[in-house]
Amino acid sequence: MRPLGDMRILGLDIGGTKTAVVVGTEEGEILAREEFPSEAQKGPEHMISRMLDAAGKLLAEFRADVASVSIGGPLLAEEGRILGPANLPGWDDIPLKDILQRELGIPAYVEHDAKCGALAEWYWGAARGAENVIFLTPGTGLGAGMILGGRLYRGAFGWAGECGHWRMAEDGPFAHGKVGSWEAFSSGVGIARLAHYMFPDRFGEGITAKEIAELAHSGDPDALAVVRRSGEVLGRGLSMLVDLLAPDVIVLGSLAHRLGELWLGPAREVVMRESMPGHARYCRILPAGLGERLGDCSALCAAVYQMGLR
Length: 310
What we know:
41% of the residues lie in helices and 22% in strands. The protein has helices spanning 44-59, 96-104, 113-124, 182-186, 188-198, 209-217, 221-245, 254-259, 261-274, 277-282, 294-306, and strands at 8-14, 18-25, 30-37, 66-71, 75-76, 81-83, 92-95, 108-112, 133-136, 144-148, 151-153, 174-175, 178-179, 249-252, 284-287. The protein is an alpha/beta fold.
């Protein structure tokens, strides 16, 4: 029998912008990694080929007992079937679990990236010890992963958490299929679109969230206005989650680290104003504790959770 902690996991963190392939342990230790641009516009066959090439390089040096995937939804986690994520064009009914098991010769597990983020922060990050956790992924998109009563919450068909689709305003930038969606205001892609929407003569359509963050930190008034507006809308959405689910903690991913209190401060102000007082005081709102390790650790979590390793 293999000793506890000796499991080796090949993790795939598949995003619309970048993809990482790692080898790690059930304790969240990363032993090796390969990263490359996703080139999502080239479709699933190209991306899967790149993933398998990267996996082959790692497996030539490291053992892996199982494969684990973190990827955007919608998807069917148990079947490992991907059903057309907005940031992955062409990924329509792709049997990713079957492909990986066939090509790699090891069991594979697939989970929604927001749920993997929630698990990673619950196991090893800012949400350790909490019973009720909401994790938000403000990156290319915006989704939620939820730990409720100490268990991962999937909802019908595993599709719970698509809060980025909420309409937060009748007007505004476009994302997640509608004008004024939460994702259009408070995701990485959304904040860039918000900048162009608010200041079209200043910020072109090619502006990025990274550029807005750098300008905001330098004191640029237009960029600060964009970040504050995004943070206020973030707070409106958080207020609804706080009142509905009364979580112990809400953890926010990458954009929270990039923007810090310039973004989280306005969000907390709105939560304190809009949520029920008891709920607002009780719930902590924090950036991800894993920082830059979040994506890599999340990639391990489909296997860790579904195999009952923790």
